[in-house]
Each structure stands twice: as structure tokens, then as C-alpha cells.
Design brief:
Helix content: under 10%
Largest sheet: 7 strands, mixed
Low-confidence stretches: none
Structural class: mainly beta
Strand content: over 45%
Radius of gyration: 14 Å
Distance between the termini: 40 Å
Oligomer: single chain
Length: 127
């Protein structure tokens, strides 16, 4: 059974940085895409970034491109989201997701295509 556990959230001032971590277990993940999404109360879950586990190709939402960086450590089965130049509008609960669908039949940007989710970690950016 695939399990994802996020950590690294917290309170930071605008302009600061945080690194989120996602520990993955229960699978080989070689054909997976791993993604970060975020959600604020009353809004839909929003795509942030994704990475192809095998090839390391990365994908970003326009709102975070050039500020955030997703990476993975295949040996440790970890996925990271380095967040720089944080803004108050980045405040949300951040979720790590795993998508096992074949790359040709899925959209990494669509949360509905992700099979597994972590419990989320709160990120709060103060102005």
C-alpha cells in the first residue's frame, strides 16, 4: 500500500523560503509521477508542480515557476518542493500526490489523476 507523508510546512514571512518533503513508501514508483498540490478553504485543490519519477522531467504552475523547484531522491524515495520568494497568496495546505497512470493517458496537472495522497502540511506566509 502506497503511503505518502509530508513534512516541512510552517510559518514564514513573505520573501522567505521553505522546503517541503514527501516520504513515499509501499511502491517502486518507477512509472509514477509525483506532484505537489495546494488547497485553501473554499477553493479547489490547485496544481503546483510535478516530476516524473524515472526521467526527472518537471512541470510547474505558472504562478510558481521560477520560485519553486521540485526534485526527487529515488534512493531515499523522497520528493521535495523548494519554495523561495514566498508570497502571502502561497498560503495553503500542501499535499503530495502519486500518479501511477501511464504518461500517455494522464495529465500531471489534474489532481483527479492521482491515486494516492498524503495528509498535507500547512504553509502560512505572513505579509
Amino acid at each position: 500500500q502506497v503511503q505518502l507523508v509530508e513534512s516541512g510546512g510552517g510559518l514564514v514571512q513573505a520573501g522567505g523560503s521553505l522546503r517541503l518533503s514527501c516520504a513515499a513508501s509501499g511502491g517502486t514508483f518507477s512509472n509514477y509521477a509525483m506532484g505537489w498540490f495546494r488547497q485553501v478553504p473554499g477553493k479547489e485543490r490547485e496544481f503546483v508542480a510535478a516530476i516524473n519519477w524515472s526521467h526527472g522531467n518537471t512541470y510547474y504552475a505558472d504562478s510558481v515557476k521560477s520560485r519553486f523547484a521540485i526534485s526527487r531522491d529515488t534512493a531515499k524515495k523522497m520528493v521535495y518542493l523548494q519554495m523561495n520568494s514566498l508570497k502571502p497568496e502561497d498560503t495553503a495546505v500542501y499535499y503530495c500526490g502519486a500518479n501511477s497512470r501511464p504518461w500517455y493517458s494522464t495529465s500531471y496537472y489534474n489532481g483527479n489523476d492521482y491515486n494516492y495522497w498524503g495528509q498535507g502540511t500547512q504553509v502560512t506566509v505572513s505579509s
